[in-house]
Amino acid sequence: MIDDVPLTEDNLRNWQGVLGYVPQYIYLSDDTVTRNIAFGIPDREINMGAVRRAAEVANLREFIETELSQGFETPIGDRGIRFSGGQRQRLGIARAVYHDPQVLVMDEATSALDGVTESVIMEAIEKLTGSKTIILIAHRLSTLVGCNQIYILDRGSVTARGNYHELMRANESFQQMARVAE
Predict the structure, then answer these.
(1) Which of 4, 45, 137, 182 is deepest in the core (most CB within 10 A)?
(2) Nearest by Cα to 70 from 84, 59, 82
(3) pLDDT, tens digit, for every residue of 130-160?
(4) Is 108 a catalytic residue?
(5) Structural domain boundaries of the chain?
């Protein structure tokens, strides 16, 4: 059930169309920045306005336009070899928001990043706050501070929920996770 509507074969494709997904490890093709953001879209159907908007949301547009010799048409190399880990993650965010989804799922999208790069990624995510439903899957508690609602899962079951400060005040398990993270 999604919003009290049964999920069926008839409406599954429509529901999938409102989702954007950012995995922990981003697959990048040996192609241009544009084609990696508008991944899978035929060249004649690529909306450059949407590509630029997605790059802006992902805190990547200025880098692309000022630091890359060919801008959006710059080849990124095999698996994005010419890009840092943070830039690859931001390309993944740009790809996920290219279609302007209503729901964005981020699965450990910052777990392999250093603190500075993580903060840049979190800035990109904060740009979406209020305009999208964001489901942020994370083990690193610092990424959860700005979340409206946090669900703690243990063996597939929700054991607690609240915002960061509520859980820090009232949930011993969350407090323990925070101490370990320090």
Answers:
(1) 137
(2) 82
(3) 788 989 898 778 788 888 999 999 899 999 9
(4) yes
(5) 9-147
